[in-house]
Amino acid sequence: MNVNYDVNEIIKQFNFSGSFIKAEPYGFGHINSTFCVYFKNEDCSIHRYILQRINTNVFKSPEDLMENIENVTAHLKMKIMASGGDPNRETLIIVTTKDGKSFYRSETGDCFRAYVFIENARTYQLAKNPKHLYNFGKAVGRFQQLLSDFPVEKLHETIPDFHNTVKRYETFLKSVEKDVKGRAIEVKDEIKFVMDRADDTKVLLNLLKENKLPLRVTHNDTKFNNVMIDDITGEGICIIDLDTVMPGLSLYDFGDSIRSGAATAEEDDTDLLKVGISLELFEEFTRGFIETAGKSLTEMEIKLLPFSAKLLTFECGMRFLTDYLDGDVYFKIHREKHNLERARNQFKMVADIETKFKQMEDIVGKVCQSYGL
Ligand code: ADP
Ligand code: GN1
Ligand code: MG
Q: Which residue CA neighbors atom 11 of ligand 1 most closely?
C-alpha cells in the first residue's frame, strides 16, 4: 500500500471481522486504488474484502459519491430480493466504518471505503468467449431495468458533464492550444483524427435537447472489467464500480460496453493490427442487452446503438489524448506514453467500427427482429 498512509491504521477503522492478515494491490482500474484485504476467521478459514482509496482528484465530493452508492445499492438490494435473487452476490455491499459511516477520511485527507468481496466470480480485461458478451449484455440491460424506478432527484452528479462529448471536445481543443508539455507536435495525426469527427460529438446531445432521447439512470462506466462474471455459470452476476451512476443515456452504457467488451485487443495494446471490433462479440452483447432491456428502449435508442459504440470509443480515445497533452494528470499510467498508446488504440477501433458500421446496423436489426421488436 502507498506510503502516505498506514494500512493497519486504516483497516482498524472498518467493521471487518476476523484477524487481519495482509492487504495487496488489486485489479486494473484507472481511477481508484484498490486493495484486496485478507482476514482469518476463528476456524482459520480466510475471507476477503475490497478496500479502496477514493480518487478525490476525480471525485471531488466523497460524501456525495458515497451517498449515491448507499442509495443505489439499497435500491438494487430491494429489487434483487423482490425478484428472488441473492443480494449478497448481485450488488455491492458497503462495509461501514467503526463510527457507522460509509467511508473513512484519514488525517492526511485520504478517503477509503470497503466492500464485501464477491467470491467465486471475477472480472476480465477481455472476453474469453462469446458467451461472456451475451451475459455481459444481459447484466447491463438488467442493471438499467433495476434502476428504472430509482428516484433520480436523489442522485448527485459525481462528475459533472461526464459524457458531454461537446464539452469533452472543447476541453480537448484547449489542451491542444495550451500544449503544456509540448507534446502536440508529436500527435498531429491523432489531433486531426479527432477534429475530423467533431460533428459526431453533437449528435446524442442534440437529440437529448430535442427530447428525442430519454434521460435514464445509467451506470456510465460499463467497462467489461466492471462486471463480475460468475466462475461456474459464466453469468454477469454483479455490475460494480458504481461511482458514476448518474442520469444519462442508455446509449452511453451500450456504447462503452462495446468499446471495452467487443474489442479484439486490450485497450492499451500497441499492436494496432490486432485492434478492432469483433462483430461476433458485438452481436452477442446486443442479444443479451436487447433480451433484458429491449422492451423499454425507444426506436431512436435502438437505431443509435451502433453509433453509440463509435461515439463512446471516440470519446474515450479523445479523453486519453487530452490527458496525454495535459501531462497524464487524470488516468493512472504505468509507462511513459501510456495514454498516447491508449488513444491510438481507441482511434484504431473507431476506424474499424466505421468500416463495419453497416454490418453492425444489420446485426441490430436482426437481433431486434428475433425478439419481436
Ligand atoms: P476502479 O474505479 O479503479 O476501476 P473498481 O471498483 O472497478 O475500481 O475495482 C477494481 C477491481 O477490483 C475490479 O475490476 C474487480 O476486479 C475488483 N473488485 C471491485 N469490487 C469488488 C468486489 N466487491 N468483490 C470482488 N472484486 C471486486
Ligand atoms: C476509467 O475506473 P475505470 O478504470 O473503471 C474511467 C472511464 C473510462 C475508462 C477507460 C471515472 O474507468 O470513464 O472509460 O477508465 N472512469 C472515470 O478505461 O473516469
Ligand atoms: Mg473499474
A: 27
Measured in residues, the chain has a length of 373
What are the φ/ψ torsions at residue 269 (nearest 5 degrees)? -65, 130
Residue 61, SS3 per DSSP = coil
CA 270 to chain centre: 22
* pLDDT in the model for residue 225: 96
Nearest residue (by CA) to ligand 2, atom 5, is 29
Q: In the prediction, which pLDDT does 6 show?
A: 83
Which residue of 91, 228, 244 sits with most ligand 1 atoms within 8 Å of its CB, as the best mutation to test the pocket?
228
| Ligand 1 centre distance from Cα of residue 34 (Å) | 7
For the record, the C-alpha cell of 349 comes out as 477501433
Ligand 2 atom 7 nearest Cα = 221
Give kind and range of the element (H or E) at residue 33: strand 33-40
Question: Does 226 contact ligand 2 (Cβ within 6 A)?
Answer: yes
Q: Which three cell numbers stand for residue 143?
A: 442493471
Relative to the alpha carbon of 94, which ligand is closest? 1
Q: Of the bound ligands, which one is closest to the alpha carbon of residue 51?
A: 1
Contact 97, 104 (CB under 8 A): yes
CA of 241 to the centre of ligand 3 (A): 5
Mean pLDDT by 10 residues, the chain (373 residues): 71 96 93 96 95 96 98 98 96 98 94 98 96 98 97 95 98 98 98 98 98 97 98 97 97 98 98 98 98 97 98 99 98 97 98 98 98 94
DSSP track, 248-273: E-HHHHHHHHHHHHSBSS-TT-S-GG
Q: Which pLDDT belongs to residue 228?
A: 98
Beta bridge partners of 14: 97
Q: CA-CA distances (angstroms) from residue 358 to 169, 260, 305, 372? A: 26, 20, 12, 21
Distance between Cα 178 and ligand 3 center (Å) = 30
Find out whether the beta carbon of 323 lies less than 6 Å from any atom of ligand 2: no
Ligand 2 mean position to 221 CA, how many Å? Answer: 6
Alpha carbon 121 to its chain centroid, in Å, reads 18
Separation of alpha carbons 324 and 332, rounded Å: 11
